[in-house]
Target: Citrate transporter
Amino acid sequence: MTLAGIPLDFILFALTLLGVALFHNHTLFVAVTGMIVIALYKILFGDFSGVTGVHGLGTLLAHEWVTLGNLLGLLLGFALLADHFERSHVTDMLPNYLPDDWKGGFLLLVLIAVISSFLDNIAAAMIGGAMAHVLYRGKVHVGFLAAIVAASNAGGAGSVVGDTTTTMMWIAGVRPGQVFEAYVGAGVALLFFGTIAARQQQAYQPIMKDNPRGVKLDLPRLGVVALMLLAAIFTNITLNIHRPDLLNEWPLIGLSVWVALLVTAGWRTPTWSLLPGAFRGSVFLLSLVMCAAMMPVKALPGASWPSALGLGFVSAVFDNIPLTALALRQGGYDWGFVAYAVGFGGSMIWFGSSAGVALCNMYHEGRSVGAWLKGGWHVAVGYVLGFIALMLVLGWEPEADVGTPHAAPITTHSEPAQTNKP
Model:
């Protein structure tokens, strides 16, 4: 069914996103309602990659459950990790090492980007949010929140272990060096939005100049943080190298974080009371991911630098995982450009990336598209400037195909689910 030539699926998804933007105090209700309406429509009048009815929905869920499970495990686990990190009092020591003016905020964003290069971007954003909460006494400008998310996504864009999308590229045969090229754009973007956001924040709430007296590190709690992060890193790298098929079949990265969390609960008890709020934010994101997975997207525009640029803007409202899978299936892209676009582009809207949703579970004032775009305009401009830098420094050098040395070919929700997507 179409309306003015547009499939009704897309219209329903667009209305869902519009509802999230307009009713930011009721985002969970809007997202869940939109997901249910789209699912019912496709069960009654459409299909799921050629499979009709409830069976088609079940096939889609079987194809997507690993991604959903990993997201749920990471969002909930890293919410508790960020609390452990803040309560370890490491953040109280930062004023001793950061400049007392806007440059302190800028260096904090650079630190977040560095952390994200070897950690999941959700963890980097949550840790960055915890540090900002202490450094700015709980008063964080929405523009700086957008910059924290952008820094975490920029840091992961050039690393094959820094973001789900770049890991997908690695598994599909894209060389780590090709992905690393994304840092040319990410670095330029970070320099631009980081400078402006840090000045915004300094004018809104100056950085703490001196750390509180008598601060003592809680080393066991810091040890819990380290073990949780090491569990995620070890699971991601080891299985991607030796058993990528297991990552396709089970949400092992999310599970590894929870195993480490539960094993260390005897050292320091997590703040379990944070879970209900984090769970609501997680259900919101998972609902939007499912909405995107149900869209009848079968191909992207022809591979070119304008289409790669457009991927970044699309990923601000559309799940970047299926976008990446479609690009890999289609071929002909410069993968450094794609890594930058899909990795960084979601920062432009708060629900455009899992890092943004996770951070807004901590800072509810960020759940306004209008406030995010107004305060974080520098992120969108930084994205374009970074893309221009990639064109000027490296140029568009597409590759027709990528090999698949680590895993079977990638499929997407747009085709029958015969193999699982990374």
